[in-house]
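Lab notebook: predicted structure, single chain.

Context: the supervisor wants predicted structures on file for every construct in the current expression panel, including those that have not yet been purified. This is the next one on the list. No modifications to the sequence; it matches the entry in the shared construct table.
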Amino acid sequence: MTTPVINIVEVGPRDGLQGEPECLTTQAKVEFITRAVDAGIKRLEVASFVHPKKVPQMADAEALLAELPLSSDVSYIGLIMNERGLDRALATPVHEIGMVIVSTDTYNQRNQGVPTDESIDAWVKIATRAKANGKIANVMISAAFGCPYEGEVSPRRIVEIAKRLLAAEPAELGIADSIGVAVPNQVSELLGMLKEEFGPIPLRCHLHNTRNTGIANAQAAIEAGVTYLDASIGGIGGCPFAPAATGNIPTDDLIYLLDRSGIDSGVSLAKIIDVSRWLEKQLGHGVPAMLPKAGLFPKDRV
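Prediction complete. Output recorded below exactly as produced.
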């Protein structure tokens, strides 16, 4: 019998750190990423090519990528908002270009300065340019289950946006519960609709634990056939443009769920917990994840 596999996309160095008041040094970020890779992480969001005045925690994107060790089996993702960000990213060794499209105009305007339709049109051009320059192009629909400004978001709205985004042939389509409002049946319903509409497209989920449903939603995503899940070591992070959007699902707690469920991630839980405890010292405060507090079970599990 084949062991199920879930691939973790570590977003702590980007989505995690951008939600923290502290700005880690470039060298501390390099150590953070190197420690995550040593624990078995193979894909990581490491930078965001946005204006440093908007997200000062990401101001050293180019310097960071110049310092990161390159390996044939590790992929670094850089987030962009527009073609200016793409220009910056293309000048670095980043492997993947990631773009976020927010499902509602109000949130997209606050996040990216334009309505949703404009970001979709920009994505088509960006995907073409990124691929022509040898980069992998991915896109994520943010606030896919709810918006802090406009409220509920219809699954049909997400399907309509996905249709336009998939025309540019991203390597995968991401679905994000950016403010942590989803519950498992909503995750199952939306992912089912996307598969029914578009067939076996690669799907990735980015879930937040703001209302303590993130890990349950991850289980629903796994059961729906998703093979890529975002998570943040220690559970740090949140969008600076959405009120109270705290709490990516912790890599630590997700790996515990996977390990105990017999699902392979290739990641050492013991090492991830060590990274969380190291991160607490760098940030000067505790992290939301449960596993650094509760510890391993059984005690000898690695």
